Amino acid sequence: MLEHFNLYESEFERLRKISVKYDGFHYPPYDETDSTAYVISSKDKKELDSLIKRLDIISIQYDGISEVCLLFHTWGVSISGGYKEYVYTPNLENHIKNYDKEVALDPSTEMYIVERITEEDLDQVAQRYSANIELYRPIKKWLVYTSQSRELILEMYAILLY
Predict the structure, then answer these.
(1) pLDDT band at 154 (very low <50, low <70, confident <90, very high)
(2) Which of 42, 82, 89, 101 lies closest to 62, judged by CA?
(3) Pairing of strands 59-62, 80-88
(4) How many CB atoms lie within 10 A of CB 36?
(5) Are strands 132-139 and 113-117 parallel, antiparallel or unpaired?
(6) Residue 79: which residues within 8 A CB-CB, separation 6 or more?
(7) 33 by DSSP, 3-state: which?
(8) What is d(CA 139, CA 6) in angstroms, rounded to the nearest whole number?
(9) CA nearest to 114, candidates 101, 99, 98, 95
(10) Can you tell me the distance from the alpha carbon of 72 to that of 56, in angstroms, rounded to the nearest whole number?
(11) CA gyration radius for the chain?
């Protein structure tokens, strides 16, 4: 994902710039009745379609405030899975600080979810944890983000052991 980002950095920035033009934006539209399809200019829609195809992005989400998420990959089944995104956000450090405070108050929190900013390979870090994870790896003003839900798999494993 890092090489992909570095190769297409200007296209990622263009996706971000188009996204922040529209409040509470997501693309592509969920279906033909989704109002997003009517709000986006035809010029932006054509460029979004081209960039999404070129970058192999599944969808774009903008929260209307500061965070742009570009869904890149998903996997799993109905009981467990995960996804990887490219995320542009100025607020991640505050989010992680709040998480760290929560863990300091209740260390058992990390039994259920682990949130980290790391320079390591995200897949390798993910293998070290049996809890749900949210990992972030900085790349310039962006982050590569991976989230993996293991909760139901762990519950099923515990049932099988019982």
Answers:
(1) very low
(2) 89
(3) unpaired
(4) 15
(5) parallel
(6) 152, 153, 156
(7) coil
(8) 9
(9) 99
(10) 7
(11) 18
The pLDDT tens digits of the residues spanning 51-72 come to 999 998 888 988 877 788 888 7
pTM: 0.70
For residue 105, give both structure tokens.
Answer: 């108050």
Distances 42 to 8, 12, 90 between C-alpha atoms, Å: 23, 19, 29
Nearest to 134 by CA among 88, 85, 64, 90: 85
Token code pair at residue 56: 């192999």
* Length of the chain, in residues: 162
Are the CB atoms for 119 and 38 separated by under 8 Å?
A: no
72's CB contacts (< 8 A; 6+ apart) are 1, 56, 57, 58, 83, 84, 85, 86
Residue in the structure block whose two tokens are 């310039």: 140
Tell me which DSSP letter residue 118 carries.
-
CB 36 within 8 A of CB 27: yes
